Backbone:
């Protein structure tokens, strides 16, 4: 089944290049293009794509606010942020707004297409060390200085252990090995954490683990 994608970028050349890549993929279909954040929100509402590939810097409504509105609408659409390495702070804002991960514009083609497939399948791009570093850096550097520490309540001690390991970037198999539990039990704990903490995906759990103080940013 084809993955339906909306491209949101204010540069037509970027959208054109991505469209060609997806046309050649065989399983990714571009169902709309947006040059502004507001257009991306409208397309997500009307077309209900599987994934919006979202540039952060766009005229008018930026990609962070567009992501927030798309996620808040509660539909099936997931957002992948397009960025460059000099936009770390903006990426962190997009992840907090509900993005399921981010892509660097000069990534290898196969990595970009693979990331879209992963997010469309309901997973989150949290495995790469750069994502964990980004979250840790901005929590540790005071990016949330104006916000209170987010308390974590209503979870069991075992769920807290799992949350800490998720925040450290461990995979389900690594968590299972660390805690001497089965993969099925690990997945059950992760699912309960998502429900109890109101998190959409694993990226949000990582942010909660950092912002609650359960995981300390690397020094």
Residues:
């Amino acid at each position: 089944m084809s993955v339906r994608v909306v491209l949101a970028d204010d540069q037509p050349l970027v959208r054109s290049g991505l469209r060609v890549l997806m046309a050649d993929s065989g399983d990714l279909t571009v169902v709309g293009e947006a040059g502004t954040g507001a257009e991306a929100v409208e397309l997500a509402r009307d077309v209900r794509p599987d994934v919006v590939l979202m540039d952060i810097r766009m005229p008018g409504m930026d990609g962070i606010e567009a992501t927030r509105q798309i996620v808040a609408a509660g539909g099936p659409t997931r957002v992948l942020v397009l960025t460059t390495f000099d936009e770390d702070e903006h990426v962190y804002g997009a992840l907090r707004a509900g993005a399921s991960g981010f892509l660097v514009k000069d990534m290898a083609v196969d990595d970009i297409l693979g990331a879209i497939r992963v997010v469309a399948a309901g997973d989150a791009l949290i495995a790469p060390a750069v994502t964990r570093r980004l979250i840790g850096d901005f929590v540790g550097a005071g990016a949330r200085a104006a916000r209170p520490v987010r308390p974590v309540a209503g979870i069991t001690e075992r769920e807290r252990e799992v949350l800490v390991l998720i925040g450290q970037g461990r995979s389900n198999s690594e968590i299972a090995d660390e805690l001497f539990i089965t993969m099925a039990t690990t997945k059950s704990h992760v699912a309960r954490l998502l429900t109890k903490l109101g998190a959409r995906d694993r990226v949000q759990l990582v942010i909660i683990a950092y912002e609650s103080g359960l995981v300390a940013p690397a020094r």
Q: What stands out?
A: The two ends are 44 Å apart (CA to CA). The first strand starts at residue 3 and ends at 8.
